[in-house]
């Protein structure tokens, strides 16, 4: 099996072989740790939330002309697998650069809460999740919806999600961070996709929901605009949206999570590489030492 340093012409290697090379080193490396990528691939054609513009990537220099590769990206940070900073939704709260680094690293639990079209994740679902959710955990929720991730109405309009009660339960539990494999922290009908904020972005969902619910309107069941966002972010609990990748491999496990954003001054969020880390032997230790004066 080739290693990364053996590759001279990566464009000639089939994607399946390249994926295997990466996966092999993620599982077998000098640290003895297993690394699982919980991010969706990101690039041109990236699925985007309904009121955002497409990601634009321009190649400013290429190897044939300039001898180097340089690219310019135009995007919002709420694209693909990303973190919401508190100030994204709650005015007067910290920006991305103002969040302490330990909030993005630490002990975590990955729970399976399967849900179907428009179903709501409840406080009871979280209370009964296994392994149990503990104070100080980074919590990742696998609804199964990441398998539908695409530029599609199925993923963005009809997914399940968290809402007020779940957000308040997680905040009261004093978790460190929350991630979920759907389009946003809140149920789609509790966002501008439904009749909230600058919405409804998708007006026909009102009639569809009445048929789905037996005559109830969206606002009958989802009266508030992004209450889960507000419950979490107002308590300094950042949220990760569009979790995916190898999520199924670590579901039902406790692990360590790393998800560091840019040090973006005034940032409202950040695209992130979300990584779960397992230590099969239990022998790994962070280098001993301190830089405290």
Write the layout of secondary structure elements.
Blueprint: H1 15-27, E1 34-37, E2 56-61, H2 63-66, E3 70-74, E4 82-84, E5 105-112, E6 120-121, H3 123-127, E7 138-142, H4 153-157, E8 161-162, H5 164-173, E9 177-180, H6 205-213, H7 218-221, H8 227-233, E10 238-241, H9 247-250, E11 254-258, E12 269-271, E13 275-278
Parallel strand pairs: 5-7, 6-8, 7-9, 9-10
Antiparallel strand pairs: 1-13, 2-3, 4-10, 4-12, 5-11, 11-13
Helix pairs in contact: 5-8
List keywords for this structure.
globular; alpha/beta
Strand order of the largest sheet: 1-13-11-5-7-9-10-4-12
Structural class: alpha/beta
CATH topology of one domain: Glucose Oxidase, domain 1
Put simply, the count of helices is 9
* CATH homology superfamily of one domain: Putative cyclase
CATH class (first level) name of one domain: Alpha Beta
Instruction: Find the count of extended strands (DSSP E, 2+ residues).
Output: 13
Give a written overview of the molecule.
The chain is an alpha/beta fold and 293 residues long. It has a domain at 82-278: Glucose Oxidase, domain 1, CATH 3.50.30. 21% of the residues lie in helices and 19% in strands. The protein has 9 helices and 13 strands. The protein has helices at residues 15-27, 63-66, 123-127, 153-157, 164-173, 205-213, 218-221, 227-233, 247-250; strands spanning 34-37, 56-61, 70-74, 82-84, 105-112, 120-121, 138-142, 161-162, 177-180, 238-241, 254-258, 269-271, 275-278. The strands form 3 sheets. It has a 9-stranded mixed beta sheet with strand order 1-13-11-5-7-9-10-4-12. The protein has a two-stranded antiparallel sheet with strand order 2-3. The chain is globular and about 60 Å long. It starts with 14 loop residues before the first helix and ends in a 15-residue tail after the last strand. The mean pLDDT is 96.
